[in-house]
Structure formats: structure tokens, C-alpha cells
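Sample entry (550 residues):
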Amino acid sequence: MRTAFRYSRRNTRPPYIFLLPLFFAPFFLCSCGKKPPVIHSVNPRIGTPGDVLTISGEYFGGERNESYVTIAGTAPTGSSYIAWRDDAVSLRIPESGDSGLVYVHVRGRKSNGVLFSNQAVMPKPVQGSGASAGPRIVSVHPQSGAPGSLLTISGSGFGGSREDGGVYFTWDGESGPRPEERQTEMVEVSEPDFGYEYWSDQEIRVRVPDGAASGNIQVKTARQLSRPLYFEVSGNTGTKTYRDKRSYTISYSVDIQVDEANNPNTLYLWVPRPVRSASQRGVELLSRSGEPFMENHRGTDLFRFSDLTPKTGITVTHEYRVDVYAQETGVRHEAVRQDRESPVTAQYTLPSPLVPSGNAAVKARAAAITGRERNPYLNARAIYNWITREIKTGTAVRRSVPEALESGTADPYTAALLFCSLGRAAGIPSLPVAGILVNRNRLAARHYWAEFWIDGIGWIPVDPALGSGAAPGGFNLRSDHASWYFGNLDNQRIAFSRAETVLSPMAPRSRTSARTRDYALQNLWEEAAGGLESYSSFWGDITITGIYAQ
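Predicted structure, serialized as C-alpha cells:
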């Protein structure tokens, strides 16, 4: 016998369904309190310093406590706040405020952004005879973009060539211990990253630099700095955080003793300078013995000494102040899209004598590690994990990259080059970095690490040696070093070169000298020309003269 089934809307719900709202009510009530803040409007949309800005919305919280507001990346001081309610915040527009997005930060969560324009810094028409005296930005197209993307800046007064000029973007780092003390800083478009594509008096084409954040963009020329224009750094590939600023004062020198010489003769010295990057900032020359023949020539100061006589002694000294930030990176690997035709990819996937990515053994190992995976971020992580797991890294073992693959041993120098070689063989833009590590006794040791490029986020650091646990004595190595040193970097280091610096001899038929495994990666350090028959040189180690933690 078949049993008939009758469908009825009124009895499709079991009796207990009506109890579900009562059961889940506490969860809904709890979740409401954790909603991120939401901005509905700001009033006024255009204001001047000292005016009262009212932000209307919801979920701001009944009291400010640790919550705060940022305007174009800058947090006003605590005295600027007038009222803080769950649905509205009132504060005075700070004197140093720029035009940009307004955010409300509550319990570590950030609201949507609403644009506010500071009338004091808005571009104004220039009248009179000096109308073309300085640079003026009229428009930026597109108005948003991710690191590595190309944009066009239109305006006037840029000059026929870049010379000493540059384009600067807002840099968003924790430059103060508290939000209200943080200052807006800038990061320049990077020439080594092929950031400058075209420069004329009325148009500039640049690529958004590594470390750029939403905020102002400005053009600097020999005449002056342009008024700012707001630019939104977009993209959801990942995030970068710069924190825990540490300032170092360092000194280093080179001593030359001439033995035999006949006139005419010339000696050239290429003295490395600390590099500027998104995480290494505020590089300031404090003192230097004498003026160089060429200053900051491809990351070096070039000194020239002519007609030296026997028994002559020369000493060149440098003293710098350098600000270093710890860097943490988060990447949404599923959002990674790599441009195979970009200049960064084209340059930093090429083999070189320093990075032998074309070696047959290197190519075979890279293919075995990455397999069929095509995501460059996942492949970079697989290469890093393979090195830290399979290569025994020590401070005294010196190998070439092919020898390291064959023997399974390496020093920090070779480990960094091995990562770059395998990365480039897998189509991942990679470069080695050279510098020093600073231990808790203020002693510096030469060290090497690497970076790889991901479109939409920029350069990502890796340290295979420290990831393997190969730290010099006295260095504070993290307990989670194996995983942390992929994508993150500490503030206990100073970089002197990113990628190899290729320099050309200054004189024909001269005698050149290179220094391998030193604190900078450059093919020339010394050059002797003419009758300089014999001399000796001593390049001293980096000395840490001061450390200032913020």
C-alpha cells in the first residue's frame, strides 16, 4: 500500500523553528558590538585648519579610549578631539593636515574612507610673471593604482628633464610611538625599479613605487616642490606594515698607503652608501673626509686622487645616520596577477654572473621545486622552504651557487644568491641584498638576504640564512625564524646595496679591484691608472656608534 504525501505550506516548518531566533539572539547581539565603524558623511567636505570637522556614521563607540581618526594618513593630536559618540565624532582640522581619505579606527578595525579636501593645500591658480616658476600638477591618470602600475602626471613647470627632480608618494609607516604623533612621510619613485618612464615639462610617466600608500603625490624639481594632489593606492593583493623604528649612527673608512708611484697617476675609490628603500629611510650623511669626485654615483661616492707620491697615506671616512623599520607583509596569493612584460620582471629574471639562474642544475632544481604551480608568490615560498629545509647554512661555509646545490651547504651569501637564482629560473623577479646585521652588543657582521617582486604589492623580503637559524653570535634570533623570515624582516640590519651595482672603469687600461662577500655588491671598489705601481688598501668594517630605539 502506498502512503499518500500531501504538501502543505503551513506545516513545512517544525515547531522548534520558532525557537531559533531566541537561541541565536545572544550571538547577534554580540556580533553587533563587533561591527567595524562606518562613515556616512563628513562635514564640511572642504575645510581649513582650525575648523571643526564632524564625521557622521555608526559603530564608533561611546568613548574614544584608544580609537582615533586619520586624515590623509595622519592622526590628529589628542587635544584636537571635541566630542566622540557612537554615531558622530567632532574634531578640529590639524594645521598639518592634507587632502585625502578620512578613516575612523576603532578597536583595530578601520572604517570606509570618505574624501576630505584641505583648502589650505589645494592647488590655486598662479598669477603674474612667476606663473611658470615651479612645478604644478593639474591631473593624475589614472587616479588610483597599485605598486608597479604606470600613471601619467599632467601639469606644467616640470622641466625638460628630470635631473635632480623626482616624484614622491605618501609613505604610511608608524613613524611615531602613538598615532597622534605620527607624521606624513614620502617615498620617491625608484629609479632602480624603472619607475621613471618619461619626463617632460608638461607630462611625467612613472610607476607607483614600493611602499607607496594612499595620500598626496608631489613633483620636486630644482626650483621647488609642487602642491600636493591626492592619489589612491589601490589593489587587494596584500598589505605592508612598517613599524618599530630603530635609528643607527655608523662609521666606516678606507685607508690607502702608496708604495711606488710615478706621475701622472690616479686612484679611484668607490665607497658604498646605505641604500634608501621603503623600510630603510632617513639616510643622512653626518660627516665625510673630503668631497667626492662624484657624489652618490650609482649608490657610491666616487673619490679621485691624482699624482700620488710614494709613502703617501690617504684615509676616507664616512659617518651616517640611518632609520630602519621592521617590515611585515601579508599577501592574498589568490589575488596575485603578474605582468610578464613589466620592466622589473624583464630585468630581474635575467641570469648574471652573480645570479646564475641559467645554470642547468639551477633550472632543473627550480622546476622540481615549483612543479606545475604558476603562482609566483606560492613558488617563492616553496623555494624558500626548500632552501631552509634542504640546504645546511652556516657562517663559515663558502660555496658557489652550483656547488651549494650539489653539496647541500651554503653560507648566508650563497643562500641569498641561491634563492635569487632559483627564483629567476622560475620566472620570479628577485634580487640579492647586502649589508650588515647588528647584534645586541652593537657589533656588526656582514649579511645577505633577498627580495622578490609581486605586482600590486612590491618587493617582499626573505632571509634564507636566518630562516635556517644561521645567525651570528649575539644576534637576537626569533623563535619562529623558519616561517617569519619569509615576507618579514627585522630592524636589526642596514642595507648597502639592493642587486649588484655595475660600475664602469674611469680610465682605459687601468687596474681594477673587486671585493667579494663584502657589505656591498658592486663589481668595482678600486681603480689604479697611470704610474701608480704599488699601493695597499684596508677597508674597515662598519662600526656602530649609536642605536636609538623608538
